[in-house]
């Protein structure tokens, strides 16, 4: 991870791997979600706190850009809120 940007790849298959993402405050960040399982409710990832709602087509990486200006712990989840992950900004 460089100081110019933070890029994290998240595999989506029966949950999120990694489930907890730690980011440095003030450094631009992206999360790239790649769904590799056809499990239905994982075809969407969303976070009201982080301001995104993104469809995840099978085997097609989808990138979300995050603001890291406010430190804190934020959640994201699948479309049915059954699987969860966290973004921790320090």
SSE order: EEEEEEEEE
Helix and strand content put the structural class at: mainly beta
Instruction: Give a quick account of the main beta sheet: strands, pairing sense, barrel closure.
Output: 5 strands, mixed
Query: Any low-confidence stretches, pLDDT <50, length ≥5?
Result: none
Any chance you could write out the topology, listing elements then pairs?
Elements: E1 6-12, E2 16-17, E3 20-23, E4 29-35, E5 44-47, E6 52-55, E7 62-66, E8 72-78, E9 84-89
Parallel strand pairs: 1-4, 3-9
Antiparallel strand pairs: 1-2, 4-7, 5-6, 5-8, 8-9
Q: In summary, what is this structure?
A:
This protein is mainly β and 90 residues long.
What would the keywords be for this entry?
mainly beta; four-stranded mixed β-sheet; 0% helix; 51% strand
Give a structural overview:
Strands 3-9-8-5-6 form a five-stranded mixed β-sheet, with no helix packed on it. The relative contact order is 0.29. It is globular, with a radius of gyration of 12 Å. It is built from no helices and nine strands. Strand 1 and strand 2 form a beta hairpin. The chain is an all-beta fold.
